[in-house]
Amino acid sequence: MExxxxxxxxxTDSAKQQERHYYLLSExxxxxxxxxxxxxxxxxxxxxxxxxxxxxxxxxxxxxQGLLEIQHLTERNLYNQRQKLHSEHRALKxxxxxxxxxxxxxxxxxxxxxLRMNQQAETEALEQRVKEEQSMMDEKIVVELDQKVVDQxxxxxxELTMQMNLLELILKxxxxxxxxxxxx
Length: 184
Fold this sequence. Notes:
The protein is mainly alpha-helical. It has helices spanning 2-32, 37-42, 45-55, 59-106, 112-183. Helix 1 crosses helix 3 (45-55), helix 3 packs across helix 5 (112-183) and helix 4 packs antiparallel against helix 5 (112-183). 2% of the residues are buried.
């Protein structure tokens, strides 16, 4: 009797999974219609079906949520780094202006032209430094965000590949069991 009960539960679970698979596949097919036609053509029914199978247990959703959280933390960290650099630059500029005012007040009139030329050169040098440092920071941000995208894609690809392999094993096992029942 327990064997029969266990087999019934497996069939019920299998039916629920099949129903969920059809639901996810249907939803994916509707979502694909909103994509550009060039992309739609690359997504075969088999690909969408495989994706729906991989989504059934929710693991992929959890991984995607974790990846999004990591991405948000990374973005926030990079934004804070850029803001800190901006604040440092603002402080440097304010300090330079203060230094220049003091020098102008202490300067003798016959040295004024030379002082202003030197101050102009200092201001331009600081502006160039600020521009270069901001550019380097922006490049660093782009590289880090690009790396996060690569990491996310790699993680998802590994998870999907693992799930597809597991699903294939389950299907093969199910086929073997069906064959052995039909022979009995």
